[in-house]
Amino acid sequence: MATSALALENVDAFYGDSHVLHGVSFSLGEGRLLGLLGRNGAGKSTCMSTIVGLLPPKRGDVSVFGETVSRMSPELIANRGVALVPQGRRIFRSLTVRENLIVAARNGQGQKSTWTEETVLAMFPRLRDRRSHLAAYLSGGEQQMLAIGRALMNNPRVLLMDEPSEGLAPQIVVEVMSTIRMLKASGLSILLVEQNPALVFDIADDVAILNSGEIALIDSAKEIRLNDPRIKQYLGVF
Question: Does one domain contain both 11 and 69?
């Protein structure tokens, strides 16, 4: 039986009195990429916040490699090997590129770190050229690379990516998706939230579709795209 790098089981989450996630269950296989899709307001970013501990679930469980993390603090969840590339990048604009990377550095579960400042800068040569620059003065594409690099400095076992193509020029989107392919090929387990279904179906092993805070469909990316007529209902034409 394949190992689940990440699993949500019957998760309910609320913002105040607003019930946002309704019994959400899905799992991300080790070394696989799961695309999480849905229209605006479907609950995708809420899932991310719940996983990383910013919005603890009211009911249900979140586990990372079999360990329940549902009631842990965001810091402890990060220490279990979960890193988030947040929507809108949210880099530290008043820090330099190098400082943004260093502040996120963490050794991976007592093992030799795969991702260091040098390996991140080798993946993103443009950041190497700008490592002494303030992050506020980077282009949108460079800021997204920095957000990814900062998450990798956590040496994660599970990488969450929330709308990494948002607001980027088409050519930069191509570069970002190429980076995600490389990370997937390295064996990293990735949960990818995207507004653009075509990008997800082009790269994902599996896809889960949220609709009004509930899982509407979940299967292999190929099976859903080729054989499930409900895809247009939940995502529209793409």
Answer: yes
Where residue 14 falls among pLDDT bands split at 50, 70, 90?
very high
- What percent of the chain shows pLDDT beyond 70? 95
Considering its fold, how many domains does the chain have in total?
2
CA nearest neighbour of 146 among 79, 204, 95: 95
Closest Cα to residue 215, out of 24, 39, 4, 37? 24
Contact criterion met (CB below 8 Å) for 80 and 67: yes
pLDDT band at 1 (very low <50, low <70, confident <90, very high): very low
CB–CB of 223/230 below 8 Å? no
**Residue where a domain stops, chosen among 135, 154, 173:** 154
Distance of alpha carbon 235 from alpha carbon 195, whole angstroms: 9
What is the model's pLDDT at position 2? Answer: 62
Look up the pTM and report it. 0.91
Q: Is residue 90 part of a domain?
A: no
Mean pLDDT of the chain: 91
Q: Which of 234, 238, 218, 88 shows the shortest CA–CA distance to 163?
A: 88
Tell whether 87 is covered by a domain: no
What residue type is assigned to position 233 of the chain?
A: Q
How many angstroms separate the CA atoms of 152 and 82, rounded? 10
> What is the chain's length?
238
Q: Which domain holds residue 166?
A: 4-81+157-235
| 27 bridge partner residues | 7
Domain CATH for 15: 3.40.50.300
Mean pLDDT (whole number) for 206-235? 89
Please give the pLDDT value at position 215.
96
Please report where in the chains the tokens 């949210």 appear, as a residue. 90
